[in-house]
Design a protein that fits this description.
Layout: E1 5-10, H1 12-16, H2 20-29, E2 33-40, H3 44-50, H4 60-68, E3 72-78, H5 82-90, H6 103-107, E4 116-118, H7 122-132
Antiparallel strand pairs: 1-3, 1-4, 2-3
Bound molecules: uridine-5'-diphosphate and magnesium ion.
Length: 139
């Protein structure tokens, strides 16, 4: 995968609250091109693997419960400087600390249920995109 791509998930809370359309509008209006996208639901094993880096953290169990409780929208996005620019667009992990106008400031309820995922590096963007999509699902 090219390094001008990132990976995102609109998390179960955002889907439950009906925010898919509003969040996708913000993403595309910010200059990201959708390379791949689907509505899907992670199994417990999927979420444990996806978030394996956090497995020793105290919130891991809650995180897996949350991320598996309903469907998500998974997507690969393309833009110059995609990883960093998308992290700026979504805002801080804790919505209380997120800048005005960011997706988490607008749509996240708490540090746990924070509406959206964004990859933290080009390497992880490639790994996470490949976790959710086959090559023939990427455009
Ligand atoms: N999380 C949580 N409690 C915390 C920190 C993180 O429940 O104290 C959850 C939250 O959903 C977050 C995810 O775990 O988005 C991954 O954490 P990370 O530190 O990677 O934050 P992110 O990269 O998503 O901003
Ligand atoms: Mg992270």
């Amino acid at each position: 995968m090219a390094t001008n791509r990132t990976f995102t998930m609109l998390k179960p809370d955002a889907v439950e609250k009906g925010h898919i359309g509003a969040i996708l509008e913000k993403i595309t209006a910010s200059g990201f091109r959708i390379v791949a996208m689907k509505l899907t639901q992670m199994t417990t094993a999927d979420a444990q693997e996806f978030y394996a880096i956090h497995k020793e953290r105290p919130f891991f169990g809650e995180l897996v419960e949350y991320m598996t409780r309903g469907p998500i929208v998974a997507a690969i996005l393309e833009k110059d400087n995609a990883v960093e620019d998308f992290r700026t667009l979504i805002g801080a992990t804790n919505p209380a600390d997120a800048a005005e106008g960011t997706i988490r400031k607008l749509y996240a309820a708490s540090i746990g249920e924070n509406a959206v995922h964004g990859s933290d590096s080009d390497e992880n963007a490639a790994i996470e995109g490949a976790f959710h999509f086959a090559g023939r699902e990427m455009f």
